[in-house]
Amino acid sequence: MKKWDGFIKDYKAYLKIERGLSKNTIENYCFDIDRLCLFLKTHQIDVSPVTITEETLQEFIYYISGEVNARSQSRIISGLKSFFGYLIFEDYRNDNPLELIETPKTGRKLPDTLSVTDIDRLIAAIDTENGQGERNKAMLETLYSCGLRVSELVDLKISDLFFDEGFVKITGKGNKQRFVPIADSTRKCIESYRDKRSSLPIQKGHEDTLFLNRRGRKLTRAMIFTIIKELSVKINLNKTISPHTFRHSFATHLLENGADLRSIQLMLGHESITTTEIYVHLDRKHLSQIINAFHPRS
User: Fold this and answer.
1) Is residue 247 annotated as a catalytic residue, yes or no?
2) Which of 148, 235, 239, 285 is most buried, by the most CB atoms less than 10 A from its CB?
3) Distance between CA atoms of residues 225 and 154, nearest Å
4) For 40-60, what is each residue's pLDDT tens digit?
5) Considering 81, 187, 197, 270, which one is annotated as catalytic?
């Protein structure tokens, strides 16, 4: 019978081919399984994915509860449920040993957002005389203007730009594609950057990648975090922010200015409207204004 490594290898292939998940998402799924394997090895528990029991998994969850918070526990349990669901799908098991194990209550954390003024200050702090300045300005404008995930930003292709039509094509989670409108101001920033991009020593395989590092290769996600962190320090912004903060701000500002949730859902690429509904809770002042303006009893 196959050991854990064999099952994990086949599971990775399933996630990539059958479900079309990205490399980063697949690594996150399998990180939880690796953690379980380490627990089994440390405690000298000799079981396979086919023979492991609910009791052993409960011991593992109790063990990790002392190391991680409720949100992380919930993610680990969810990831393992998916793995054992795959084993059922492939007829290796006829039950999911995690089926009756409940995930801890985590609550719903409201995302941090920036004001329009803060975003303007961050972008204005970019030194466009610097060799990478035009690129950084174009990247942050695109993050905010289109509400992208950081992975979507670094994977953006020149062939995804449909400026004549006013859209960019975004490939999101699960390789699902969507078209997002792009503002004229953002389009101009990208075009200005592309003039500088042509002078880079573009590496083979990166000819169509829009945002490149100085060596002519695709930027890493970590580099985007670093750029934003440095700008935050530069303007003395007393808030911890990340690329995702721009995405949250995009959705919040659209909602505040009257956009409907369904349109925001489509632009963000959310599979479920319930994911988008979190933004309704962000600005209670705005909701009060809506009640005062439109409710017949106000």
Assistant:
1) yes
2) 148
3) 12
4) 999 899 999 999 998 899 889
5) 270
